[in-house]
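User: Could you check the structure of this?
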Amino acid sequence: MHAIFAISVFASIALCSLSLGFTNNETDLANQWFNQMNVELKQLNHEAAEQAWESSTLPTQTAIVEKIIKLTVRKAHWERMMCNRGQRYRDFNASFERTLHLLCRSLRHTDDEIRSMTNLLGYLQGIYTGTQVCVKGSCDDDGKLWQSTFFKYPELESGNYVEPTTNEICLFGEPDMERIMTGETMHQFKQAANCMASDEKILDWAWQSWRLAVGPPVKDSYRQLIDVMNVGARRSGYQDIGEAWRAELEMPNLRGIVNRLWLEVKPLYQKLHAVMRNFLKKRHPEVTNFHPAGPIPAHLLGDMWSQNWDTYAASMFPHEVDIESNFRRSNCSAEKMVRRAEDFYSSMGLPMMTETFWRKSIFKRTENVTKCHGTAANMYNAGDFRMIACAGNAMSDFYVILHEMGHIIYYMLASNQPTIFQEGTNSAFQETIGDTIHIAALTPSHLIRLGLLNSSYLKPDSDGNLNHFDYSLLLKIGLTKIPALPFSYLMDSYRWSLFDGSIKFEIEANNYFWYLLENEQGIQSASKTNRENLFDAAAKYHFPDNTPYVRYFLANFLSFQILEGLCKKSIFGDVRTSQELPLPLHRCDLYGSKRAGRLLEKALKLGGSQHWTFVLEILTGSSEISSRPLMNYFAPLIKMLDSIISDLKLPVGW
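Assistant: Sure, the predicted structure tokens are below.
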């Protein structure tokens, strides 16, 4: 099937190229170059995927780093050679033009620079994934808790972790410290550590200790990494590495788009912030540095990074049905969660996971998993797609699985494209597919299907409007999605300033970070400690992993936009219809919708062969990213927040 497809494509290429003045011989040479490039790129990508998987599932070892360095150097040389050889075919047709655009945009680093960057990244990733916060002995109160706290760092050269000794409790950042922050394992930690400190003091300890553990050892190496990355970026024609990162998304006015979207949703965030601040102020009257009209102390928000506040959904707006508690009581195993995720995708007619996926994926943390962060892997080998989930027994784990499976579905559907186009149209689209399905899976009707809700909660209230559960559900989703907007907006705004030198790294890096968080996100550090010499941004995985973050900001908007398009396709058969949906967007159930599945398949199977605007237009009828569907989705929640703010006379802003 693939070979027949390739012949038909090349036949059309030949006809087109001849009309543009290419001879038969030149056409043959162009096709030979294209075929060779894709075959060799597939092999290089396969090797890179194998090494990445090895580094994620085995202790970090010098031998692994050396293998990565050698392959990275080899691929860089290969890209330059293939790019130079392919320039003569740039005008061959639109497909070749896009091929060369994708192939030739890699940065021009020397072999020594590649070695330096790889070593620095290996060190940074090792610090994040291998550092442990430990408590030794009993910690009767918060004072003794700090006195008994110390940090263990991985033995990066040997690849071994330092094992806890007797009377020691040692916790990794993900998921161990993270789950204390959400409250999931708070009780277990207090029992294990014989700790009588209050929950608030333990949250303060967990929040601060993780930043003290990873920030200082990351800071100097990250500054060195910026210097090396900037050299390669400038050699490649960019002003700095931030400009190179932005170029990947193929949005010439990316800064303008991001700023516009943030300003459009900021009033919604401020309203949610005002209601959350009032709730937390009443919950924690003992916290003295917490002004009722000021920023919220970050450690109180139920998340290590203050980007997800859904820990408090059930307490803020109590309802007789707590789907989080119901989920936990179901004792859903990690594999069963993956099966449930697969069931949703396959109900739409999308591919089921392969035999290799089930055999080689890792769904729970084991001693072999060194990077316990949600991961989807395309191994560039027939049917070999894998996942790392490190799942526990929370709905947040189900989200991670749905999200990572979205990546895999994209990989699977794009796998019939030439290798150069198999990554997807851009990184924001890669991140949005799983998020779209996650939102679709949180409809009341699908929660009934999962056994988490009774069917009686589909009925509207006596006024014919949404019922109490609708608002409870919208608040839960809002507490997950809305705080992620300023967080993802600031993560790269901050790094872009470090990259272009507008912020002096040594003396301003952490102060500027907190300036952004306080002014845009409305949060403040857990204590008044002078943080000038710290490096708190390193507490988030994507920072030492050097992963751009604005893709997640864009994906948040795209997910609601694509959800609306898929709902219109499912109900009306046309994404361009002017008809209004006959139900609120949060009640649109895509489970079993083959219409929506066929539309998603049509868009995703293009991979990176088309510009993202073309793919977005297929899915939504528009080529522009819009905040309107997100605001429409949360319209009932906005009305509820307005009512609460008015009734309680809450200040909005900080």
